[in-house]
Amino acid sequence: MDATRLDGAIALVTGASGDIGAAVCSLLEARGAMVVRSDLRAPSGGKQEFLALDVTSEGSWAEVLGVIESRHGALDILVNNAGIAPMERIDAMALEDWRRCQQVNVEGVFLGLKHASPLLARSGSRRPGGAAVVNLCSGASDRPAAFSAAYCVSKAAARMLTRAAAVEFAALKMPIRVNSVHPGVVESAMMDDILATYSRITGGTPVETLRAGVAAGNPMGRFVDPAEVAEAVAFLASSAARYVHGDAIHVDGGYAAA
């Protein structure tokens, strides 16, 4: 039996409309999972199951999880992927932008853990290796970057929350594994926006110059493909990772190690 298969598993993926989220959903489905996509708004033309979810709202989480339990009776996998990356100088960043970043990237993960854990625990008791939570963190949780203080702090907090939840669930003997995936610089619309903002902040440095510099600074010399991030998520969600708990997988071409 292939332990990486996810046949019959029910998965909820937040931030499903983004590049990483879409890649994760597609791969989980290819491995046999039934995926519930969630985001603030449904993607146009989508035929898959979608539920609108504001990850910063307790009421929104409760509503979505209620629908999943009613429709499917279980939740085996939660992928906390929703995130934002505001860029600005510290001395110019609005406090509301700082707080919004922490709300989405940290409180969104906390609320997912809080509201999904009862259903995950019940489902995990029937699944080899238990239920699985995978939090999308970032290489920014390990190494800081200029103009990204809010994002770096939020992802470092999400990493610690992953570890804290893992040891707490183990202490409570809850059959839920919690791990994180830390992508490097991903080829994505979000990264295009980040580079454009970086160009503005630095007085017009050409975006292509910035792209080339970022790629050159990576040991493997390129950006990460969203599909490569999805592979790590799918592994942690599967029973092949049944003894991996509170850990992190870096999908960054060696950047964190360099």
Automatic annotation (TrEMBL):
Domain of life: Bacteria
Pfam families: adh_short_C2 (PF13561)
InterPro entries: NAD(P)-bd_dom_sf, Sc_DH/Rdtase_CS, SDR_fam
SUPFAM superfamilies: NAD(P)-binding Rossmann-fold domains (SSF51735)
Entry GO MF terms: oxidoreductase activity
Keyword Transport in annotation: no
Keywords, alphabetical: Oxidoreductase, Plasmid
Signal sequence interval, chain numbering: none
Family: Belongs to the short-chain dehydrogenases/reductases (SDR) family.
UniProt name for this protein: Short-chain dehydrogenase/reductase SDR
Native source species: Novosphingobium resinovorum
Lineage, uppermost ranks: Bacteria, Pseudomonadati, Pseudomonadota, Alphaproteobacteria, Sphingomonadales
